[in-house]
Amino acid sequence: MPFDRESAPLFQQFLKYGNEGAILRAMDSNLVVRALGALAHEARLAIFRALVVAGPQGLPAGAIAQQIGLSPSSLSFHLKDLSHAELVTARQDGRFIYYAANFESMSGLIGFLTENCCAGAACGVPAAPACCGDRT
To answer: Domain limits of the chain?
Structure first.
């Protein structure tokens, strides 16, 4: 079955949270390099994946540290890199800081990387299976 990025479950999960077109226009190569660099570290990739699973509500820093097995100082360092790459957002809720995946930026990054895939024609890359169901 040809790959159709509009119907691929992973694309649908990310597109659901953002406007891909607006991000693609705004995404420059420096931001793409920062985002890919941030994700190229095992701990940061694990943090980002945990935040993707958590959805738009995110997780408090302590829960992330416990889930990934990082010290608070290491987690803080890695979250700073992910924030600098615009892959995560933070919000204060009482005494806790909640971090969430920035699905809009991730959607833009995926779109940027696949924008010219197969010169715009359908290609033979199979879609990834759905993993998480609807996150409304």
So the answer is: 9-114
Q: What is the pLDDT along the chain (136 residues), one digit of tens a residue?
A: 344 444 444 444 444 444 444 444 456 788 999 999 999 999 999 999 999 999 999 999 999 999 999 999 999 999 999 999 999 999 999 999 999 999 999 998 988 888 877 776 777 666 666 555 554 4
Tokens of 31: 């931001």
Coil, strand or helix at 99: strand
Evaluate whether 75 touches 65 at the Cβ level (below 8 Å): yes
CATH topology of domain 9-114: Arc Repressor Mutant, subunit A (1.10.10)
